[in-house]
Design brief:
8-stranded antiparallel barrel
């Protein structure tokens, strides 16, 4: 990929001036999540978001709970506050996302809490019932840096 430095500003410019609906949206999405942490865990995800009117951005709060399966007692939660930059295409909206993240991991009676950032890409299908999917990389340091994949349904 030779000289792609123009690509990000071009995409941001397109998103900024694309026609958007004139109303804000509150959306609630619940679904499944997968993390590579603790050798791979399935869990549940809940997200509440707001897309302000006339802007290609949205903000959200979310929580993941992984009823972890381990050789010893374990538990895994994460909480996040973030934003998305999305297209205004009707029906299908790809987006990029960033979040401030708190991950709490209990393993064998020892609790580790880490704070960091998450960056990712995703999509929303908004015809009737909302379908949303994303993959984010969590920057929590050391062995807690992981991919998290989420897919859900919402209103």
């Amino acid at each position: 990929m030779k000289n792609t430095s123009f690509l990000l500003p071009f995409i941001l410019l397109l998103l900024a001036f694309a026609p958007l609906p004139g109303q804000g949206q509150v959306n609630l999405v619940a679904g499944a999540a997968y993390t590579e942490d603790l050798k791979g865990q399935m869990g549940v995800d809940l997200r509440l978001g707001v897309d302000p009117p006339m802007l290609p951005v949205g903000v959200f709060v979310g929580v993941d709970y992984f009823p972890a399966r381990c050789d010893q007692e374990c538990r895994l939660w994460s909480y996040r506050v973030g934003a998305i930059l999305h297209t205004s295409t009707p029906g299908f909206q790809p987006y990029v996302t960033g979040a401030y993240l708190v991950r709490e991991r209990e393993l064998g009676g020892t609790t580790r809490k880490r704070v960091g950032m998450a960056l990712g890409i995703g999509f929303r299908v908004t015809t009737g019932l909302r379908i949303q999917g994303e993959a984010t990389w969590e920057f929590l340091g050391g062995d807690l840096n992981h991919w998290v994949v989420r897919i859900g349904l919402g209103l």
